[in-house]
Structures are given as structure tokens and as C-alpha cells.
């Protein structure tokens, strides 16, 4: 069944907004398109984002001042990779190097991510079935690399949601607790979310989501590399079982 988790629902309520996107955590791979509430865009947050194409969306992010993270940023970090990618990876927020370069995952964690992707036959510069699109939940760097606050996530999330809609990926891999909790609308731990496919409904489309550890965490916990590899293999299986979507 479809639900919006209570924490997010409370947050939205406080902001005077309705639910924006809904999550259905189902046993692995429920049939696409079954159940799921239509996604409502609250009037107060309807900045026309759900009607934007890629270029307008990127320009809008570049000029966005919807949350306090706009103040200290050098660059917004929109996303990287082919807009025809059938794989999507989602991280948390830009760090210092990403803020300077305007591209996600270009620091130390990014280099690890690139080698994980290469091992899986994927890459941010690849085309065709090997192409991945990489984006973060929030597009501006939080000061001192703190986690994004819930209201920053809420303000920024419509951009990510539109990126998911435009990309219509066959599979999404979310990396780390902040991304997993934001995308799936849950408080659950990474450990409990790993190992099976979740599904999110975005504007009527049902997209499988695989949860894994964040590469920055892996740098400190190299023993968990095998788990990330298992998660990438699961994502590959889900990918292979999912029909390409018409764009
Ligand atoms: N960590 C993230 O979550 N995203 C980046 O872009 C860089 C580091
Ligand atoms: Fe806008 Fe997102 Fe940057 Fe906040 S983090 S200013 S919502 S683009």
C-alpha cells in the first residue's frame, strides 16, 4: 500500500504543504503501475518544476534560492551523465570539491564510486546501456559538510523528482542514509533497507530502487565493499528484469 511516512507528513504539514511524493515499499518487484497514489504537487511549492524540460530545470536550479544553502554555495551541482541513461544513482549533497566544480562525486568518494561503476560495466561518461546519470538529493553544499536539514531536503526534492521523471530510469541506486530516507520517505536504517528492491511512484511511474552504502562511508569501512558489490549485482538483476521505458 502507498504511504507517506509520518515524519515527512508532519514536516509537510508544518510547512503548510501536502504530500509530494509517495513511497510503496513492496516485496521485491511488485508489478509496475499497480496501486500508488497520484502524485500531488502542493500549490505553495508549485514552481512549475513538474513541467520543466532538462535545460530549464538546470537553469532554475542554478538560480534557486529556495533554501538557506544558496548563501554559501560556489556552484549548484545539478547532475552528470547522459540524459538517456537507464541507470540513476542518487547521493546526498555536494561536498567541497563538487561545490567548486559543479559536478557530483568528483572528490575522493567520487573516485571510489567511479571504480565501483567501472567494475559493474557502467560509467558517468558512458553511453547506451552502460550510461549512468548521477544526482544528489540537494543541489547546494551544506556548510562544513553537515547533513542536509529536513526542510532543505523538502525544498530541493522537487528538482530530484523532476530529474527522475525526465530520466525515467529502469533502476535507481540510492547511496547512503540521507538519500535512502529522502527518496523512500522512511526512517529505516540502511541495513534494513538493503537487499531487496523498493518501488517509488513518481507521477504514476513505478521505479525500482536499490539501497546501498554511501561511498564516503565505504572509504572508512572498506570491509563493507562486498555488500556494495552485492547491491550493485542486485541492481543489475532488477535492471535486466525491467522493461526499458518509452521516453
Ligand atoms: N557525496 C555526495 O553524496 N554527493 C556528492 O556529490 C559528493 C559526495
Ligand atoms: Fe535551491 Fe536546492 Fe540549492 Fe536549496 S539546496 S538553494 S532548494 S537548489
List the SSEs and their pairings.
Layout: H1 6-14, E1 22-24, H2 54-62, E2 87-91, H3 96-101, H4 108-119, E3 132-136, H5 150-167, E4 171-175, H6 177-184, H7 190-193, E5 198-202, E6 205-212, H8 215-220, H9 225-241
Parallel strand pairs: 2-3, 2-4, 4-6
Antiparallel strand pairs: 1-5, 5-6
The structure holds uracil (URA) and iron/sulfur cluster.
Radius of gyration: 17 Å
Please list the strands of the largest sheet in the order they lie side by side: 1-5-6-4-2-3
Distance between the termini: 27 Å
Shape from CA axes?
globular
Number of helices: 9
Order of helices and strands: HEHEHHEHEHHEEHH
Q: Which fold does the CATH topology refer to?
A: Uracil-DNA Glycosylase, subunit E
Please tell me the total number of domains. 1
Overall pLDDT: 85
The chain-level structural class is: alpha/beta
β-strand amount:
5-15%
Spans where pLDDT lies below 50 across 5 or more residues: 8-41
Number of strands: 6
Class in CATH? Alpha Beta
Q: What ligands does this structure carry?
A: uracil, iron/sulfur cluster
CATH structural architecture = 3-Layer(aba) Sandwich
Q: What is the helical fraction, as a range of percent?
A: 25-40%
CATH superfamily: Uracil-DNA glycosylase-like domain
What characterizes the major β-sheet?
Answer: 6 strands, mixed
Amino acid at each position: 500500500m502507498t504511504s507517506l511516512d509520518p515524519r515527512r507528513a508532519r514536516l509537510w504539514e508544518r510547512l503548510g504543504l501536502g504530500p509530494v511524493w509517495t513511497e510503496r515499499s513492496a516485496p521485491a518487484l511488485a508489478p509496475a503501475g499497480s496501486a500508488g497514489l497520484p502524485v500531488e504537487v502542493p500549490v505553495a511549492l508549485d514552481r512549475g518544476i513538474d513541467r520543466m524540460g532538462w535545460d530549464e530545470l538546470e537553469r532554475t536550479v542554478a538560480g534557486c534560492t529556495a533554501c538557506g544553502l544558496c548563501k554559501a554555495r560556489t556552484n549548484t551541482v545539478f547532475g552528470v551523465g547522459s540524459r538517456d541513461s537507464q541507470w540513476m544513482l542518487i547521493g546526498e549533497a555536494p561536498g567541497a570539491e563538487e561545490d567548486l566544480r559543479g559536478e557530483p562525486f568528483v572528490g575522493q568518494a567520487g573516485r571510489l564510486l567511479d571504480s565501483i561503476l567501472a567494475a559493474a560495466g557502467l560509467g558517468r561518461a558512458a553511453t547506451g546501456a552502460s550510461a549512468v546519470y548521477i544526482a544528489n538529493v540537494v543541489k547546494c553544499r551544506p556548510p562544513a559538510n553537515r547533513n542536509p536539514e529536513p526542510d532543505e531536503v523538502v525544498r530541493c526534492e522537487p528538482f530530484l523528482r523532476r530529474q527522475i521523471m525526465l530520466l525515467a530510469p529502469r533502476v535507481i541506486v540510492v547511496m547512503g542514509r540521507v538519500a535512502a530516507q529522502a527518496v523512500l520517505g522512511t526512517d529505516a536504517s540502511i541495513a534494513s533497507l538493503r537487499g531487496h528492491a523498493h518501488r517509488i511512484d513518481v507521477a504514476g511511474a513505478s521505479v525500482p530502487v536499490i539501497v546501498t552504502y554511501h561511498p564516503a562511508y565505504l572509504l572508512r569501512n572498506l570491509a563493507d565493499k562486498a555488500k556494495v558489490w552485492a547491491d550493485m549485482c542486485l541492481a543489475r538483476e532488477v535492471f535486466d528484469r525491467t522493461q526499458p521505458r518509452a521516453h
